[in-house]
Amino acid sequence: SAMREDRIKKTKTVCTYCGVGCSFDVWTKDREILKVEPQIDAPANGISTCVKGKFGWDYVNSEERLTKPLIREGDSFREAEWEEAFNLITSKFLGIKKTHGPDSMAFISSSKCTNEESYLMQKLARGVIGTNNVDNCSRYCQTPATVGLFRTVGYGGDSGSITDIEQSELVLVVGSNTSESHPVLATRVKRSHKLKGQKLIVADLRKHEMADRADIFIQPKSGTDIVWLSAITKYIVDQGWEDKTFLKNRVNGLQEYINSLATYTLEYAADVTGIPKEVLIQMAESIHKAETVCVLWAMGVTQHVGGSDTSTAISNLLLITGNYGKPGAGSYPLRGHNNVQGASDFGSMPDRFPGYEKITDDQVRAKYEKSWGVKIPAEPGLNNHDMVSGIHEGKVKAMYLKGEDMGLVDSNINYVHEAFEKLDFFVVQDIFFSKTAQFADVVLPASPSLEKEGTFTNTERRIQRLYQALEPLGESKPDWQIIMEIANRLGADWDYAHPGDIMDEAASLSPLYAGVSYERLEGYKSLQWPVAKDGVDSPLLFLDEFPFPDGKARLYPVEWTEPLQFDKEYDLHVNNGRLLEHFHEGNMTYKSEGITSKTPSVFLEVSPELAAERGLENGTLVRLTSPYGSVKVECHITDRVRGKEVYLPMNDPDEGAINYLTSSHADKDTDTPAYKEISAKMEILKVK
Ligand code: SF4
Asked: Required co-factor (predicted)?
C-alpha cells in the first residue's frame, strides 16, 4: 500500500566504523534497518563494504541506548528531564569557572562525532569558557603520524587518495593490520598485488593476512621500526639512489639529514631489529626499483615512545626517494575511527584552531577573537593525557566529554578511573552508558550518525555528508544541539539552525575549508581538503609545493628511542589491536547482534611454542598481569604470533580490557600512550 511505501526510506550515509569512509544508502522501514546498499558513486568504496559497514547498524535500536538524561544520586543514577540536567550543568560550570578559572575545565571531543560537533566543542571551550583545554582521541592513535608529517611535508593527512594506493608500484605497510582494520582499502591493495603486479612489503610483529600475501614480510623486534627504516634510507643514499632532482628542487636539509644517518649501518640495524642484512638490502633495492612507493602505517608505529619519530622516518624515506607529489606515491597514515581526521581538522586540539592554524599565532587568534567576540588564551591547553594528570594534581576540576570511552580506551585505566573519581563535576555524553559514564555526575543521551546530519572526513582528507535516516531515539539529541544548548545557557548566542551553518562558519574562518559548503557536498559529492574558495579540492597533495614559506619540504633528523624495559618477571610482550568484526573497544559492535553472533568474545593469541612450554590449550583461561593491572582471558593458539609475543584484541569492554595492563608512558612528542610497549606475566586459572 501507499502507507507502507511511505514508511520505507532510502538515506545516504557514511560508515562510522573506520577511516576508509565508505558511503552507501541505508534502507529503513520506520526504525528498522532493512539493508545497506553501496552505490557506484561512492568515492572511497564504490560498491564494496565490509562486514561492519554492512551488518553493524542495529546498535541504533539497542535496548541499551540512553534515551533520557541521567543525574547521579549517591552511587546510582536517576532519570531526569533535559531542563534539570541543563540547569545543573550550567550552574556547576559557571561556579567552577568562577572559583577555579577557565583552565580548571577540560573538554573532550570525539572522532565518532561529526566535524561540526568537533568544531562546536572547541568553540565552547575557547569561545565560551575561555580555555584551550580541548582534545580528542586521535591523541590515542594518530597524532604522532600527524606530527611526523607536519615536520617534513607540512600537512598532517594522507598525501593522496585511496585510489592512488591502488596504482602504486610498491606498497610498504608498517604496523598496520590493514585487512582487518581498514578492510575495503586493503581489498584494493590485495587486488593490485594480485592482478597488477604491485609489490607488497609488510613489517609487523604479527603474521596477519597482509603478511601472508607480502612479497617480503619482516618481523622486527618491537619498537625498532625507526632503525630499519633509517638503515634502508642510509643504504639508498650510500648507493647514490636518492632522487637527486627532487631533493635539489623541492627539499631542504639534505646534508644535515644524511649526517644524522651515520649510526644506522646495516650491521647496526640487523643487530637491533633482528632483520638480516640481506633482507634489508632486498627491501632497499625494491624501493629503489619502484617508480612509485606508498607507505601505509598505523598504530604499530604510532603507539610507542618514539611514535612521532618513526612516523618522521617514514616521511624522510619518501622524501629521499622522491615519492611525494605524484600519483601512486606518498604517505598514508591510516586513520582508525571514521572521523579521527575530522576531529583534529576541526580544532579539537589544545594547540590548534580548525584547519591546524596555531593557537600561538597572534593573527590567527585575533581572527577568532573577532569572530567570536571573546579573548582566547595565547598558550596551548592541556591534551587528554595531561588532563588526567591535571585532575590528579587538583588543577582540573570539571570535564565535559562526548562520545569517547576514555575510561576504557586510555592507557593505564586504573589510574584514569582514580582521576575521574576526583573530579568535582563530570558530564558524559554518549549513546550508551559507557565505562566512562559510570564515573559521571550527569550523563546526556546523544544521537548516533543515522539520527542526524553532518559531515565526516575520512583518511584521505575527504569530507562527506551524512543525512538523517531516523528520528533521534527517545529523548536523545544530536551532539551539536546539546553543545549549542549548553553554550547558550552559559551566555553564548549561537543560532545554528542546521549543521550546514556550522560548516559555513568554519569555512569562513579556516583557509583549509575556504570553499567547503553543504551544497558542494550534496549526495555522493565530496571534497578533499585543502579546498580553495572556488571549490577546487586537493585529491593529491604537494604537486607543486609543500605548505612551508619557501614551498620546500624538510628532511627532519630523528633518533631511535629504546622501547620501555620491564622487570624480568614480566616475560611476555603483549601486542594489541583490532579484530575485523569489532570496532575498537567494541562499545557499538557489542550492541549489534549481526556482529556478536559471529565473534562473541575476546581471546589471547599465543604461539605454539609458548603453548607447548606452558601447557596451554585452546580455551585455557589465564590471567595476565603487568606492573599496572591484570586481565583474565582465554587462550587461542596460532602461528600468527611468535615465541613470547602474545596478542590481545582491544575489543573487550570488561575483564579482558587491554588497558588494565598498559602504562602511562607515552610518545615523547605527543603524549600518545605507548600501548604497544607493555609486558606481562601469565598464570593459568583454568584448563578447558
Ligand atoms: Fe565501514 Fe571501514 Fe568497513 Fe568501509 S571498510 S564498510 S568504512 S568499517
From this structure: [4Fe-4S] cluster; Mo-bis(molybdopterin guanine dinucleotide); [2Fe-2S] cluster
